[in-house]
Amino acid sequence: MQRETREKLGLLFGFVGVICFSLTLPATSVAVTYFGTTIAGLGRTIVAAILVAIVLIVRKETLPSPSQFKRLLVVALGAVLGFPLLTSWAMESLPVSHGAVELALLPLATAGFALVRAGEVPSLKYWISSIIASLAVIVYALHLGFGQLQMADLALLAAAIILGLSYAEGGKLAKELGSWQVIAWAIVIGAPFFIVPVGLHLTTDMLDAPIHAWVSLLYLSVVSQFLAYVAWYRGMALGGIARISQIQYLQPFLMILFATVFLNESITFFTLVIAVIVVCSVIVGKNAPVSKKNPAQRTTE
Q1: How many domains does the chain have?
Q2: For residues 281 and 287, what is the distance between their CA atoms, to the nearest angstrom?
Q3: For the chain, what is the radius of gyration of the CA atoms?
């Protein structure tokens, strides 16, 4: 395959992945209304695990080594447990557009953890950009919270940080296991721990949930939790991580758009301005120069 063709396919897969991820918060907002936080946040993993297990068995994927298993736990804690559960809880009380602005910090959090894991020192430009983006998000949250941060805001910020760590660890691990295999094994590892809590929250009233609630839960289980990662990692494999990861900056605006279209949320000019400030700061910070720690410095730490 020619390089130009690979890059175009990479951009296409990457864009598909971002669109899929952008629909996660709107789908979560609908699902938690009828199924609650536990089912929407953890139940999706059990459904996804069935699909993933079939794929792993059919493809006869090699089992992770003990050391890889430990690192997969980090990925599972972020992408499979922490992020779904925290965002599901936050979406019970916050509008999707609110969540979109705060989760715009995700690429910056991912870059920060990647720098730490690689033993690199972020430049002053990175830290300034991080502070500006963080302050913009805090001002936005305070504005909508009438002068105080809500617990849901803190949950979303924690979700971004946890998923950033998970992405950074998963990115390194993908070089050994393969791209989509990382999230696949993380799902399989995490799902058994969720069976009991999910089972305790199952009720017959859920059968009366409308069709759009079931579609939302199915979307979270099949697309958000697995297929979106397949498209995203495939895009980066074809087009290059640096090039394809830039598409992620569209995600907050796509979330806001989908919230308007599917949930009839009213989007204010203030929301759009803050979103632009955050995304621009994230772009500058993520592309800021870094320096390597010297070996002597690293051994003394």
Answers
A1: 1
A2: 10
A3: 19
